[in-house]
Amino acid sequence: MGLLFLFFQVAFTLFLQRALASQQLLTSITDGCPQACAEISTLLGVSALHYPDNDPSFEIWDAKQQEVRPACRAEPSSTADVAAILEILTANWCTFAMKGGGHSRAVDASNSVGGVTIDMNKFNAADVAEDRATVRLGAGLTLGPAYTALEEYGLTFVGGRVDSVGIAGYTLGGGFSNLSPQYGLAVDNVFEYELVLPNATAVNVSETQHPDLYFALRGGVNNFGIVTHFTVRAVPQDEILVGAKVFALNYTDRVLDEAYKLTTAGSNDTYMAFWTRYAYNQSADSYDLSLSQAYSAPVLAPAVFAGVNSIPYESSDLRLDRMSAYVAASASAFGNRHLFTTLTYTPSAALDARILAIFDEELQSVKTATGFAPSVVTQPLHANAIKAMRLRGGNALGVESEADATLTVSLLTFGWKDAADDEAMYAFAVEV
User: Fold this and answer.
1) C-alpha span between 352 and 345 (Å, rounded)
2) Which positions make up the signal peptide (predicted)?
3) Is the pLDDT confidence value at 12 over 80?
4) Nearest of 339, 305, 336, 300 to residue 320 by alpha carbon
5) Residue pair 104/337 in contact by the 8 Å Cβ criterion
6) Which DSSP string do the residues of 357-377 spell out, in sequence order?
7) Are 22 and 107 spatial neighbours (Cβ–Cβ below 8 Å)?
8) Residue 392 CB: number of other CB atoms within 10 A?
9) Is residue 70 a contact partner of residue 139, using CB atoms and an 8 Å limit?
10) Which contiguous run of DSSP H or E holds residue 38?
11) Which of 49, 180, 231, 238 could form a disulfide with 41 if both were Cys (CB 3.0 to 4.6 A apart)?
12) Cα gap 147→178, rounded to integer Å
């Protein structure tokens, strides 16, 4: 385990060094961008091309990205537009970034530093197939509107839990879901991609068409072209159990023990999903401990949660609800600076407790930073999700576990307000 932590620390340190240096990009990859912007304006029309000094409506989740100044922001409305823009960028040797939902913490990820930001917000349709087995989602959709559109048909899809997260980044990166114990990650429920290749050719990518690209796009993120549409599994669903219970800290060991049981023995019930959250509350200088429950059926108190429901709690918002309403209530505020990273390991209540202890210890030196709001979120990567990674030719995530056993994924996520605290925040992430 020590080598694993060392590898993680080195890898994450390199990532942070790259992030801190991202605004020192070579001018050679942006010199042609003014000309590219002019040509894109001719292509799309002036109403779909925006310059940073006259773009007041543009908003992006992470404040570090909001501060970035691209050469311009383009809003294509068709796959042909995307292909033409890519040709222009290539001809003018201009760097670019893609914005789907814009929910990345990395500068230059979805708002280009000095280049062209391609904003996919007009790709916002959710088209349900006649047989209602699949739905075609535009790459500019976010989770909330996608859920709302499908619920009109009594359907849902393998999606996440925060309404402003974009379909594109979420799906290309993997995609945890309440439905993962039944169907796997979001990336393993994509049947077809519409993709604009680097040579500006648009192709459909599936298990039978360009299978090498199909494999790569399932976990290889965004380095193989520009995805404009995803055809994904549609799942019948109405109201389900969602919500969380908040516990006093003296019940931490019991909560972690029940979480371990749910991760291991409880994982036989594939309708069940859960995650724990241990968060520092800066205003009270205290901690909040909660366990969120999801059950993909209209059952308010499923037997699988009997153990955790036996623990005395301080508050609860458990309810039957639709996913669109649930993710809207879980919205993530704009205007803060963010970092997040994960660690994956064999389930262990002792290691869960040790991670929380390290979190407590390391945040002491930075807890007075303005707007500091850190938390550790822990959830299982279900055995069925690991098995699903091998379907239709497999994926590029490279996740394995002994005998396909369930794994634990621990997420460190936090926000803060001031750029002056950036270096301290990056150091905190590395130390934890």
Assistant:
1) 10
2) 1-21
3) no
4) 300
5) no
6) HHHHHHHTTTTTSTT-EEEEE
7) yes
8) 18
9) no
10) helix 33-44
11) 49
12) 13
Distances in Å between the alpha carbon of 199 and those of 88, 94, 194? 11, 15, 14
Bridge partners of 242? 319
- CA atoms of 27 and 329, how far apart (whole Å): 43
**pTM for the predicted model, two decimal places:** 0.90
CATH of domain 240-431: 3.40.462.20
Beta bridge partners of residue 206, listed in sequence order: 192
CATH class of 28-119: alpha beta
Tokens of 143: 């989770």
Q: What are the backbone dihedrals phi and psi of residue 344, each rounded to the nearest 5 degrees, phi first?
A: -115, 135
Confidence of residue 400 (pLDDT cuts 50, 70, 90): confident
- Structure tokens, 125: 């349709």
> Count of residues for the chain?
432
Instruction: Give me the residue spans of the domains in the chain.
Output: 28-119, 126-236, 240-431
Q: Give whole-number Cα distances, 251 to 294, 312, 314, 375, in Å.
A: 21, 8, 11, 18
- Map residue 258 onto helix, strand or coil: helix
pLDDT confidence of 393, banded at 50, 70, 90?
confident
Q: Give the tens place of pLDDT for each residue, 160-212.
A: 999 999 999 999 999 999 999 999 999 999 999 999 999 999 999 999 999 99
Tens-digit pLDDT profile for residues 211-269: 999 999 998 877 899 999 999 999 999 999 999 999 999 999 999 999 999 999 877 89
Residue 25 has pLDDT above 70, yes or no: no
pLDDT score of 10 more than 60:
no
3-state helix, strand, coil in the chain (%, to 5): 40, 25, 35
Residue 27's pLDDT is what?
57
Please, what sign has the CA dihedral across residues 212, 12, 388, 1? positive
Q: How far apart are CA 138 and CA 291, in angstroms?
A: 33
Instruction: Give kind and range of the element (H or E) at residue 99.
Output: strand 96-99
Q: Which distant-in-sequence residues (6+ apart) come within 8 Å of 256 by Cβ?
A: 276, 349, 352, 353
Q: In angstroms, rounded to a whole number, what is the distance separating the alpha carbons of residues 160 and 173?
A: 12
CATH T-level fold of 126-236? 3.30.465
